[in-house]
Amino acid sequence: MISCSEKNGAVDFSVRLQPRASKNEIVGEYDGALKIRIAAPPVENAANKACIEFLAKTFGIAKSQVEILSGDTSRNKLIRIYGIDKTTLLAKFYSKS
């Protein structure tokens, strides 16, 4: 199960990002984190920006509501999404994978 925590109207969860994929998609779970494939390369923050855009589009929210808390230069990231609850987050992820 994907580990996530909810506080102050936001949800934090772990992501394992795979850059340079053929398309942007949620793959499933990887070692307690959500695995996401992103087409952008990990150069000049392109993969991070693409990840934020993809998550915002997936949830139908503004990009400003998605934040990378840690892992800017790593495949393992901690993401915060404002304005949703844990139940909504997990339901969306498990319906996509």
Automatic annotation (TrEMBL):
<dbReference type="InterPro" id="IPR036591">
    <property type="entry name" value="YggU-like_sf"/>
</dbReference>
<protein>
    <recommendedName>
        <fullName>UPF0235 protein Ctha_0036</fullName>
    </recommendedName>
</protein>
<comment type="similarity">
    <text>Belongs to the UPF0235 family.</text>
</comment>
<dbReference type="Pfam" id="PF02594">
    <property type="entry name" value="DUF167"/>
</dbReference>
<dbReference type="InterPro" id="IPR003746">
    <property type="entry name" value="DUF167"/>
</dbReference>
<dbReference type="GO" id="GO:0005737">
    <property type="term" value="C:cytoplasm"/>
</dbReference>
